[in-house]
Amino acid sequence: MLSAAFAVHPAAVAPRLHSVRQRQQFCAPIGTATPRRRLPVAMLSVTNAVTTQSRESAPAAPRKLSFPILVNSCTGKMGKSVAEAAVSAGLQLVPVSFSAIEVPDGKLNICDRDIHIHDPSESERILRSIAKDYPDMIVVDYTVPDAVNANAELYCKLGLPFVMGTTGGNRQLLNKTVQDANVYAVISPQMGKQVVAFLAAMEIMAEKFPGAFAGYKLEVMESHQATKLDVSGTAKAVISCFQKLGVSFDLNEVNLVRDPEEQLAIVGVPEEHLGGHAFHNYHLTSPDETVSFEFQHNVCGRSIYAEGTVDAAMFLHTKIRSGADKKLYDMIDVLREGNMR
User: Fold this and answer.
1) Active-site residue among 107, 116, 228, 327?
2) 3-state secondary structure the chain
């Protein structure tokens, strides 16, 4: 068996799951079933071709940047993580955020900084005023799907560059709003830069070698916190690549694991990350079952997304300073720049 595994969190690598059908366990408890015969494993070593470049052609180390960043909304887990990552990176955290969630004294303390929380109904008035005090400010949006388009319209109306990390909304309208307003923005439903790089590699493989896995059987398992009810956008994108590679697969076949007990005992999610994780496993088997490929990426916590978001904000700041003609970017553009921390 040839196996390619991609794991993000070393302490949280799940066991290889070769049977991931919906509403079935991925493996039986010890001693209750006869072990399946496993094929010899030969791990593929994936080497970055960039290492062959000379030192002269390698990208320069990123410059130390400092600029104001406003995180909307800091009361959410993702927004709070981004705010902490921004402070750690040396950025100036604007002491204002918006949320319908009430907090004691209307303030939230993040990294020893008091962030004043305002109701979203006040966002236009306050943002207009704040923009005068922080002329180089970049807004990061981690709110709710229903607010995506309205928030983008407001940022564009005020001429505020922004990073949209919130998923959902009308994405076509979102892009059109930015393009019509000619405002700088990074828009991506996936801010984990390493996951984005993996997706980009999958898309390249699908484009270059269509039909390479024709006839292969695909099994997909994805485990997320119990509050996430739908199939992850990342899984949908990877599955789309496999379909282009010739695999027949329907999204209804994805094994969604949302039960904490199964996540602990079967998937291998650390208990402290049950409330925030993303474990994905894609298993391919040849028609005669003599060859199999396995792709896996496990994310615990939110730091990978927070760090990627801060990189996106830094990227956008440099584009604004340089007066770049292009205004609308995604995380692939950030990756191509090559100057991430």
Assistant:
1) 228
2) CEECCCCCCHHHCCCCCCCCCCCCCCCCCCCCCCCCCCCCCEECCCCCHHHHCCHHHCCCCCCCCCCEEEEECCCCHHHHHHHHHHHHCCCEECCEEECCCCCHHHEEEECCEEEEEECHHHHHHHHHHHHHHCCCCEEEECCCHHHHHHHHHHHHHCCCCEEECCCCCCHHHHHHHHHHHCCCEEECCCCCHHHHHHHHHHHHHHHHCCCCCCCCEEEEEEEECCCCCCCCHHHHHHHHHHHHCCCCCCHHHCEEECCHHHHHHHHCCCHHHCCCEEEEEEEEECCCCCCEEEEEEEEECCHHHHHHHHHHHHHHHHHHHHCCCCCEECHHHHHHHCCCC
Q: Give 286-340 pLDDT, tens digit per residue.
A: 999 999 999 999 999 999 999 999 999 999 999 999 999 999 999 999 998 876 6
Q: Indicate which residue of 80, 193, 224, 280 is catalytic.
A: 224
User: What fold is seen in the domain 68-191+303-337?
Assistant: Rossmann fold (3.40.50)
**What is the topology classification, in CATH, of domain 193-302?**
Dihydrodipicolinate Reductase; domain 2 (3.30.360)
pTM: 0.76
Domain boundary assignment for the chain = 68-191+303-337, 193-302
- 9 included as an active-site residue: no
